[in-house]
Input
Amino acid sequence: RSSSNPLSSEVDAAMADDSACQEVARLQVQHAFSGDKIASLSLVMTRPVRELKMMLEEHTGIPAAYQTLLRENDVVPLSDASTLQEERLGFDSVVQFTQREPKKADLELWELCCGCRCWFSQDSAKLSDCFFFYDFKERDCGCETAPFTDLKEIHVQYLLRACPEDTHLLQAIFERVILGGDSKAALSLARALAQDPRVDVNVSSCNCDCQELTLLE
Output
């Protein structure tokens, strides 16, 4: 049945074009070194590699940003922006998986939460004395990325596992999130941090007693 609605006609045409190129890649993903199977996944060949990595987050617990994917018997990593078709992946292709360890997990967690790395190097030394020195919302470094942008709990958990046992940064971030974070992403981060034994959720003030505050206040 034909439609007199121009917008509907455009949508129908787009769907027809899309269905014409719905060739699906069926991929066998395995660990690059052990050869152990991770997952069998299907994805339209016109989709980018980054979407394959996002699908693998559920199977591996490794954030897409820390995954490296390669074609079998190849040493050049797949490009996130390239489509599966451009990377010559098709029916029953084998994809090898490796993970990248964070170089400095506490710094990367700081950047993930704050939106940039400013203040970290000059103020992280103060963290053992004062946890209330930094307000995410009052950042004046000029960087454009907003705090808590694209924050995913799987990413936070991955970095938490990699953080040094003696880091003071987790307590500082937790308190700043409680005091200044009101977005859904910030609350998700607070939950993840609260479950970490290195974070004191009942802290009443910072170590230097510069503020007589409790987190509930």
About this structure: The helical segments are 6-20, 49-60, 105-114, 120-123, 153-162, 169-180, 184-194. The radius of gyration is 23 Å. Strands lie at 24-31, 37-44, 67-71, 93-99. Residues 6-20 form the longest helix (15 residues).
